[in-house]
């Protein structure tokens, strides 16, 4: 039996992946969602206490059973960077990065030998792709959590919101990079991978954006978006993105040696280099340690080696 814990599996291409995975007889799925139901465990990624409660609920349900796959697929984009969570953290950074970082850390003791961690990122993290969204300038956790402290913060709300999103997705790739050298992860031969599904119209990602953007996003997710997908390799259907995610989660597709970034291009999984900034070990270590402090974890003096929880 393969035990999979997942966020972002109740809608969009995550729901496609869950449907495919649930058809396999030897899979046990534990799905976190904002609304509780018999099929989902409640979790609000905008609240760190809710993330902690979700991790405890997962561990209680599993008992001594290990987690074979942790798939962190949930995400959001907001019209600005002005929204703060109850923890006083910019909401996009909190949901897309910090909540998932905390979940990895809390569930790490429950990982099975040779488990897999898949974190959904975005091509917007890479300025070279020219995605049309504001590219990330940095991965400074303090400035992303409190953008009002950033001296280079965009004055236009829309651009500031785009930067919050793309920078949080850069943080996803950097988290994977840090995980791959984390001592406990290496000792147990656990694989960490960042997954870029490309542009996937017709999902709930833009539910908080203005109505015209939501309508366009929905329309392009239908057959009307097919001509665009023929000319842009980064555009994929919801079904294709879900199938690729399911393939990575199930282990049917594995990255080549040394690769930790999978990108879906024209419906096919590729394993290119992530952005230049995403390949910097010093940036990954700083983000890992700063994120630890933000969620109430201590950090040992040795660089990049977080210690025990302080709370």
UniProtKB/TrEMBL annotation:
What UniProt keywords apply to this chain's record, in alphabetical order? Oxidoreductase
Q: Which Gene3D superfamilies match?
A: NAD(P)-binding Rossmann-like Domain
Read off the Pfam families from this record. adh_short
Which PANTHER family does the annotation name? RETINOL DEHYDROGENASE (PTHR24320), SHORT-CHAIN DEHYDROGENASE_REDUCTASE FAMILY PROTEIN (PTHR24320:SF152)
Hey, which family's this protein in?
Belongs to the short-chain dehydrogenases/reductases (SDR) family.
User: What is the recorded name of this protein?
Assistant: SDR family NAD(P)-dependent oxidoreductase
Q: What is the lineage of its organism?
A: Bacteria, Bacillati, Actinomycetota, Actinomycetes, Mycobacteriales
